[in-house]
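Subject: sequence -> structure tokens, single chain

Hey, anyone have a minute? Need the predicted structure for the following. Not urgent.
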Amino acid sequence: MEKGSKALLQILCIAFLLGTLVIGFNSSYREAFLALWHGTPADSPLWKSNQEYYPDVTLPVAPADQNADVTAASALDQEISHDTK
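Reply:
Had a minute. Here:
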């Protein structure tokens, strides 16, 4: 069992290293990584090039309700108060 976990850890480390190298050397992947890091995936050159090949794929739209967190919190409060009765 311990030998299997060591092998899995080695595989994961090698995959991480290879992924880092790809991002480091390939400018398109580097720009895509930076776009994701900054929270603007639509600015990624990979996203832009894929739009013509996959026109049905879109980015998720942010909810229009800016009070979504407040609504969720009040629903949780109601649920907790209901459980304590």
